[in-house]
Specification:
The protein is built from 5 helices and 8 strands; from the N terminus they run E-H-E-H-E-E-E-H-E-H-E-E-H. It has helices at about 25-40, 70-80, 115-125, 145-160, 190-210, and strands at about 10-15, 45-50, 85, 90, 95, 135-140, 165, 170-175. The protein is globular, with a radius of gyration of 17 Å.
């Protein structure tokens, strides 16, 4: 009887971060999510997918239906993933620009590239590799904890046919005592870790549900 029950395949999650800073709080959230998935969630594997190597979107770089090697590799990672985990800090009430000093206080007078939106746009080029994938968002910052960027990301997802889980939401005020991160940007707050676990369980369940349709 047991031999006749096929084991469910592992859900592969591609994790993307909107900050390029090595000690970014949002990259810390992804590292924590990867650790939690390994230790506490059966049947889920999270892989961090770096968006920094991607060139800025330029359709002149598309030749005979092909893309630059870094873009092709990124699109393949998204295509092969079962679901997506975004970590999106907030920049000027929206998805982030390249952050040099902190996730919270970039120079508002500087015009820099937007790595997360750039990655989203590259993967949306024909054929759109985001289509029909479940997704979740986590974010850390001051005040609302990156919440406004999450709502913009959800709006973008409508056109991409990405399907975000609605609950639980995860916004973390990184500067409210007690300390949420150590000096290297690693998440140390146990309550926040438990909330990430619950979000990942919801993403796992939602992904399974969509796969059955």
């Amino acid at each position: 009887m047991e031999a006749a029950i096929a084991a469910k395949p592992v859900i592969k999650v591609a994790a993307l971060c909107g900050s390029l800073r090595k000690a970014s709080f949002n990259r810390g959230l992804i590292r924590s999510a990867i650790k939690i998935s390994k230790e506490a969630i059966n049947g889920m594997e999270i892989e961090y997918v770096d968006v920094e190597p991607l060139p800025m979107l330029n359709t002149d770089l598309e030749v005979d239906g092909t893309y630059p090697p870094a873009v092709e590799a990124f699109r393949r990672k998204i295509l092969e993933a079962d679901s997506i985990l975004f970590a999106s800090p907030e920049y000027n009430y929206s998805v982030t620009a390249k952050v040099h000093a902190s996730d919270l206080n970039p120079n508002p007078n500087s015009l820099t590239e937007t790595p997360l939106k750039n990655a989203i746009d590259w993967a949306s080029r024909p054929p759109n590799v985001w289509a029909d994938k479940p997704a979740a968002i986590i974010s850390a910052g001051g005040g609302f904890g990156g919440g406004r960027s999450q709502y913009h990301l959800r709006q973008i997802a409508v056109f991409l046919d990405l399907h975000f889980i609605n609950k639980p939401e995860f916004f973390l005020n990184a500067f409210q005592p007690p300390a949420k991160f150590d000096a290297d940007g690693n998440l140390i707050d146990e309550e926040a870790k438990e909330k990430i676990k619950q979000l990942l369980l919801s993403l796992h369940s939602f992904t399974r549900r969509l796969q059955r349709k």
